[in-house]
Structures
1.
Amino acid sequence: MTDKIPYYLKNVPTFKHLSDPHAYHRYKDIERIPAVGDFVVCSIDPVASVAHLDELARQAACKLRPQRYIAFVMEMHGLSIGNEPVNAQGFTFVRQGPPRATRPGQPVFRDYCIPILPNTKHPTGRKPLKPAQPLPWQDCYIDTSPDFNFTEVRVSAAPRDYTCVLPCGREEILDTMEMMATDGVLLERRLASIGRGALDAIASLALPPSPTSAFKVPLPPSPVTEEIELPEDTALVERCTSSGLFMSNPAEDDVSIIASDDAESIPDDNQSAHDPGFDIGLLLHLETMFDTSGDVNDPVVNVWYDLDMVKEVLDPIHFLEERAQIRQ
């Protein structure tokens, strides 16, 4: 009778931050890729990111010295079976302090963030994200500004100690997704308000790092054109399935293996290309569902689960700078 008990119920390891691993559906001591809702330490792998390019690009990548950042896993692309070398995922990043303007000419709003316990401060009183345990740093936020709202990466698969993972529960993940989606939907409305010179929208802008990079707020257009106003509580549909697996469509390949024909598969005049009952749409859907490779233009990142590896939370704007170097 004992042999019929699933492995994950009778051999659950001891987790550093989880008194009840079952409540967070974490059962293994070693994992190759993170799960949705995990906080991770991540760092770009420059050489792996340009492996599809020429030798010159790989030599240039060897000279880069990427840093380590704190990320929150938001979504998975495709259905991993555990043997893929890389897995496409969507990250958002943790920062200390609310968002600040880092690039002149690109507005960033101070309230486009979600506090993470032990931090509870937010310009509009937004509910904080509650991990299994509070983060080891003060004044931390999920950055929901456009640059960090579901940043696409390719996670290298490697067996790593998972007993030190710090996850969030399902409801916390759904709440975070909804808040990020709402911020994304309302962005255009806010930018339009700035264009009209609305003082409340201008007042919500994040401060620039120095006066020399202050934004040039546009004057109201003349004449003012009418625009359709979205309701404040507009949000995108939850990205989840009934099974609890969060996925979105990966970057589409130029050619589908299933939908393409080669010289050996061209039918003769008396043979139809496909059986009339053959559902190619279903196969294409399955092909997409199992494709975890992601877009080759997205950086490959290594991840670790022990947040104690880093002593400080680096500004994730530096991650974007490193990504830009990879893409040059």
2.
Amino acid sequence: MSLPSLVPEVHVDVASLPLLLPRSLRYYDLYPYSDLFSHIVSTRPGCPSWNAELEAYYQTFHPSVWVYLSIDHNNDTRALRQLRSRLGELRKSKLKREPEDGASVDELESAIKIVQLRQLDRWNKLFGLLDIRDKYIQHQQDLFPREVHYEIKKAAVRAMESTEPAAARRSLWPLFLPPPIAGLVSLRDQDVDWSKYALPDRPTPKSEDAWRDFEAAQVAHGTKGHGSSSGESGRDDEAAPLLAVPFNGARSSGLSRRLPVYFATAPLKLYRCVVTLVDFCLVYGFPTCCCLICLSP
């Protein structure tokens, strides 16, 4: 079994995503509420912090951006669970390779590393903003009776939409996928300075010291890959070509193959229905995959 066949395909090339979440924001407001980064900061229980500024920047991205990133993140999470299970069974059996020309221990370990790095890279660059927002909203829902939590959450989110970032609402498309509508600021556009659309960076001596300690630990353990940015997830030369296995439908489900049709080439009326459905899922806390199930023939 080849190593690429163990790594799930993705819709969004993670390597091409611009870095839009500055490290001071991640260190103070995002990492503490994700167990993916317990090696950098201590994970905190409870409700993440969320404010008008974060909500305003979140709203600058087109809703379909979050749909694509969520699908890729969930697929990687599921793949990691399956790969770890297979590796555990193989180690328990004390065999070096699965029966019938299956994967070897080395191949499973390499695939796990590749998917982990890709997941961390996606989270660091943009997906972390959605992840923490979802956790904030879920926590608010849990505080209120079931019959009123929709209205409470809707009012809270609307109240936070007050800060004006550089980009207009729903105008950013930081993906190489075809934009669903004309007029979006796209990764396909030439000479776009994505740094001006990034969330504000407010470093402190504490956060900078933490990053230096983290980088020193990476170097000491030989885990910081060539070309990785300061404080970002490292990638070695072997893993880099597989971090963004392109989506081409060859090994995908029927639903996944239809996704680009709905979001990139759908007629205007269908597109508006899709966006409305996505918005409903994002605002009211339903998984975004619900809208895809509704659209599937």
